[in-house]
Amino acid sequence: IIASELLALAGVDGDVLAAVGAGRRPLTVAVDRALGGIARWPAIGAIMAWDAAGAEEATLVLAAPAGDGEEEWEPGVVGATGTVVPSVDLTRRLVALEPAPQPRPLGGRLDGDAMQRWQAFALSVLCADMVGVMAGGLQMAVAYASERVQFGRRIGTFQSIQHLCAEQLVSVEAARSATYHAAWAVDGLSAQEALQASRIAKAYVSREAPLVAEAVLQIHGGIGHTWESLAHVFLRRALLDRAMFGDTSVHLSAIAAHLEAG
User: Fold this and answer.
1) Which of 48, 67, 120, 212 could form a disulfide with 198 if both were Cys (CB 3.0 to 4.6 A apart)?
2) Pairing mode of beta strands 94-97, 104-105
3) What's residue 202's pLDDT?
């Protein structure tokens, strides 16, 4: 969905987008080695294809001078074949790409405004994914606490477990609210304001998602730390989402720089 939005902003032919939407042409997003942002060409070091299962091509962004010292951006695609890289997230594949000598341009150039709006969209999608991780993990933990019996009582009746679950619910709903605002801002505010809203959401949700996932492990007790339990899968996905396109510290720094400049 992130790659599709980038191509839509670049004015790619509707048939291409329809094929992507229908699953006939899987695409992934190529990111830099540090997972901090979408890859640029020429890239230094490895280019990583994120969420690359089934994808035949990866979308890059090529930087091109606009003539006035600024940059315009142009999407391009390369084959998504490469070496699978061990990742903390077991639900999505990370691939080190072996790109063609020159990416094939796809669509027109995007100005800075369009790129900011795409960045806001991408960060909002990542926040939404983390909210899903938080909510799903907490739901699983509550269900477990309602069934697990210890000392002759279900552990969900213990006040310490109840308080822990309630605290995580507050974090989930706060993250959900921040994500809703960021998602609305993508279409409802200027590109720069939308990017700021998404940075705020990404900074907050990136901090809270791993904490909620860790609490899910705690509620499950010893079984939550075994390979057989799904609790670790939620934590792993939250950790990769936190790193993708910048973690809390990255976005707090960007927010501070924007406020200082303004």
Assistant:
1) 120
2) unpaired
3) 98
